[in-house]
Structures are given as C-alpha cells and as structure tokens.
Specification:
Layout: H1 2-19, E1 24-29, E2 33-42, E3 45-54, E4 62-71, H2 85-88, E5 91-100, E6 106-111, E7 118-126, E8 131-137, E9 141-146, H3 150-176
Antiparallel strand pairs: 1-8, 2-7, 2-9, 3-6, 3-8, 4-5, 4-7
Length: 177
C-alpha cells in the first residue's frame, strides 16, 4: 500500500514539475512498477540517463523499455500528390529492449524502426532488485502503474467479504421481521 501511495505522489510531483516547462523528467523505477510516459510529436529516437540508486549487492539494475506509438505519415520522399499509404496514413511503431543500470549515471537510447515522430507512449518497467533513477529529456505526461502488493489484495478481498456478509445479514433480518 505504501509503495502505491508513494508512486502516486511521485507521479503527481513529476507531472506537476514536467508541466511547468521543465526540460528533464526524472522518476524512480522500483520493482513491480511500470512508468508510462505519454508524448505528442516525439520519436523516433528516445534518449535518457539511468543510474542504480539502491539495491542488493547482486543487483544488475535490469529494466525494460518499450515504445509504442502511431507515427505521422510521410517523410521527405513523399510528394503532396502521393497516394502511397505510407505517405498518407499514420502507422503503428513498436520497439522494445532490455537495459542494465549501474551506480554511475550513463546515457541510454532506443531507436524506433522509422524516421517519423508520432503520438503514443514509452514505458519503463522493472521486475526485481533495487531502484533505478531515470532522467529523460522532453515534455511527457507521466502515468505510474504500480502493481498491488499481496497485502493490498488481501484487504480488498476481506472488504468485499465484509460487505457481502453485511448485505446477507440485512436480507436475513428483513425476511425474519
């Protein structure tokens, strides 16, 4: 629960700072969390810095990055009268790769298989280990997707059970009266 609240507070802070015309967006990527950055008119190259902030001694700082967007049609080889779908219709672009972070900050990049920018998202995800700090240049809308902990699931199921028991008791009491 604490991780979900921390992630939500961090997302609000990053969104607030990023919306004020900040050039660099920073966020911490914790295990079991995916952070999605939405963009407009960005790509095909995505560049960022990473650094392993904390983690066990055997942590390699592995994380995954996925870019998924609709690229704008055309390029410099398209003429105004061209009817080729590549020149007239937006097209989907998908790129994904795994990266390693270490204690020293370093630059990373992901190249999408097109020359065109577009609208969509780039997602960073980490499954285990410590925290990786990411810094990416650009104007993004941040969406942190935390994976609920087992304790949160247990509270949710217990809450549904209590509500169901209360409704059943009320119905039995109404039939007896």
């Amino acid at each position: 629960m604490r991780k979900a609240l921390t992630g939500a507070a961090m997302a609000v802070a990053i969104f607030w700072a990023g919306g004020a015309g900040a050039a660099m967006t920073y966020f911490d990527l914790t295990p079991g969390q995916a952070t999605r950055l939405w963009f407009t008119g960005y790509g095909p190259e995505f560049a960022w810095t990473d650094r392993l902030v904390d983690g066990p001694g055997n942590d390699f700082g592995g994380y995954s990055v996925t870019a998924d967007y609709m690229a704008y049609p055309g390029n410099s080889s398209c003429a105004p009268e061209d009817t080729d779908p590549f020149c007239t219709d937006p097209f989907p672009v998908f790129a994904s790769w795994d990266y390693q972070a270490d204690a020293a900050e370093k630059g990373q990049s992901l190249f999408a298989p097109t020359y065109n920018p577009g609208d969509g998202y780039i997602e960073f995800s980490r499954t285990s280990g410590g925290t990786v700090r990411i810094g990416i240049d650009g104007d993004f809308r941040v969406d942190v997707q935390a994976v609920p902990e087992p304790a949160a699931w247990a509270m949710l199921i217990a809450g549904f059970g209590l509500v169901g028991g209360t409704l059943r008791r009320r119905r039995t009491a109404a039939l007896a009266a």
